[in-house]
């Protein structure tokens, strides 16, 4: 069967392209759709269907633009209620793509419209399942997202539906089927996903904790909900964009790539109340940046951090970008619904500095320098990693202030004493430093290289802390 996984690492997202006899289908496309159109052209094929497994929360799907550009029909599973023309399929309905068949299997739980698509080849043999966020490799979709949109859909109710879907719809299928999920490790749509992006269903039945044969529904609900952190704040907004529709990606690209001189950039910042978002390397941001700008480097886990920290997708944004990467940054922002880019600094930060404009820096020290001052400053060390990382191993006496929820911890940072920030490798601590400085907190020092560098020194560490001792 001719099926291709198109994986985008920064979002840990997998779309799928299916082709047979000059007809093609795309499953869960990203916002920029030209790559799918180009792929079909290579096969001299016409895209016939755009299958959506559910209304996505972590990205804005490209289904509407792809339909407008190709004439393909959008297909959702049962109970979906999109605000635009689409086929809402029935459970068990079959769609033909060339000699292949795609069978709809309604699998509510992650969301109520969540649907798995069974792929059947030209010989009538079942080949695989495109599972969306119902079943991942090593995990299942978190059942707490839909309640952010529909309050009565509690996470317990959704987990109960997910248990039934897995037991009654997925697990009875053949062990030989290949599982094609929508996400891999790094996505916030699950909690324990594997780095592998495909597997056989039979192996998942053996190794995936949520598919344990003797698991009761009560045990499933408890285990699936255990350890879930608060989902990123932008998720409900992306869901609504996917339900209601959105502005064309092409229009977003045109209006957003607006070069501004340093003086015009400053005026725009004052007039629009835009956030100045600096996406350069964190080492460059440390050396110099526009005062009160927020750093989220594009070479890290860029778009999810923007969504988690800026949250409001309608927020006006001004960009400081390395030259030549403007289109890439705007594209990656649009993937998570941030379409209100006012413009970017023409010539980058060098132009700002050469114009004689005011700029700021971050004090940063090496891990070896940190080791020398640790004993005298051990009460003022802040770890901005996630709780799981902190629990596994951390600097002795360091306080946990996760970057994801930094605003909840602002009162804990000392007002009159120098304090020290670190993460795992240096990226997140600079994000945290930029946020704190934008709020007027400047008495901070970044530890370059983060915990990875610190643990190579003689700074004392703690290997494990009981969750009950954490806030």
UniProtKB/TrEMBL annotation:
Tell me the keywords, alphabetical order. Metal-binding
> Which CDD domains does the entry link to?
POD-like_MBL-fold, RHOD
Pfam families xref list: Lactamase_B, Rhodanese
Q: Which SUPFAM superfamilies match?
A: Metallo-hydrolase/oxidoreductase (SSF56281), Rhodanese/Cell cycle control phosphatase (SSF52821)
| Rhodanese domain sequence ranges | 270-361, 375-463
The record ties this protein, via Gene3D superfamilies, to: Rhodanese-like domain, Ribonuclease Z/Hydroxyacylglutathione hydrolase-like
Q: Does the keyword Metal-binding apply?
A: yes
What InterPro entries does the record point to?
Metallo-B-lactamas, Mito_Persulfide_Diox, POD-like_MBL-fold, Rhodanese-like_dom, Rhodanese-like_dom_sf, RibonucZ/Hydroxyglut_hydro
Q: Which domain of life is it from?
A: Bacteria
Protein name per its UniProtKB record: MBL fold metallo-hydrolase
Q: Which organism is it from?
A: Winogradskyella alexanderae
């Amino acid at each position: 069967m001719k099926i291709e996984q198109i994986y985008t690492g920064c979002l840990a997202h997998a779309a799928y392209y299916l082709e047979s006899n000059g007809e093609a289908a795309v499953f869960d496309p990203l916002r920029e759709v030209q790559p799918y159109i180009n792929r079909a052209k290579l096969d001299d094929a016409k895209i016939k269907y755009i299958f959506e497994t559910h209304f996505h929360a972590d990205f804005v799907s490209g289904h509407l633009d792809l339909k407008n550009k190709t004439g393909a029909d959008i297909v959702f599973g049962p109970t979906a209620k999109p605000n635009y023309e689409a086929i809402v399929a029935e459970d068990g309905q079959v769609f033909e793509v060339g000699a292949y068949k795609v069978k709809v299997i309604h699998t509510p739980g992650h969301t109520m419209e969540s649907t798995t698509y069974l792929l059947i080849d030209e010989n009538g043999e079942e080949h695989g399942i495109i599972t969306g966020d119902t079943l991942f490799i090593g995990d299942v979709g978190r059942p707490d997202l839909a309640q952010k949109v529909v309050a009565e859909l509690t996470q317990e109710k959704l987990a109960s539906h997910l248990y039934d879907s897995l037991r009654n719809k997925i697990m009875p299928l053949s062990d030989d089927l290949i599982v094609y999920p929508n996400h891999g490790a790094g996505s916030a749509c699950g909690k324990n996903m594997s780095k592998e992006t495909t597997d056989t269903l039979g192996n998942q039945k053996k190794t995936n904790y949520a598919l344990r044969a003797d698991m009761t529904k009560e045990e499933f609900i408890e285990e699936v909900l255990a350890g879930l952190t608060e989902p990123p704040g932008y998720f409900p907004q992306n869901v609504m964009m996917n339900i209601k529709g959105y502005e064309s990606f092409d229009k977003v690209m045109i209006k957003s790539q607006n070069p501004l001189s340093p003086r015009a950039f400053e005026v725009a910042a004052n007039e629009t109340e835009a956030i100045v978002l600096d996406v350069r390397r964190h080492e460059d941001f440390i050396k110099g940046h526009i005062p009160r700008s927020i750093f989220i480097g594009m070479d890290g886990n860029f778009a999810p951090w923007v969504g988690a920290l800026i949250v409001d997708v309608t927020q006006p944004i001004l960009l400081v970008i390395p030259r030549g990467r403007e289109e890439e940054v705007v594209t990656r922002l649009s993937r998570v619904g941030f379409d209100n880019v006012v413009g970017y600094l023409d010539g980058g930060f060098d132009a700002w500095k050469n114009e004689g404009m005011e700029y700021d820096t971050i004090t940063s020290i090496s891990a070896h320098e940190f080791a020398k001052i640790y004993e005298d400053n051990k009460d003022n060390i802040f770890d901005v990693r996630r709780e799981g990382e902190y629990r596994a191993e951390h600097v002795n006496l360091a306080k946990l202030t996760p970057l994801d929820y930094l605003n909840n911890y602002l009162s804990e940072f000392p007002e009159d004493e120098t304090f020290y920030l670190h993460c795992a490798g240096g990226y997140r601590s600079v994000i945290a430093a930029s946020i704190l400085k934008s709020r007027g907190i400047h008495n901070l020092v970044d530890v370059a290289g983060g915990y990875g560098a610190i643990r190579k020194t003689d700074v004392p560490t703690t290997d494990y802390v009981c969750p009950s001792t954490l806030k």
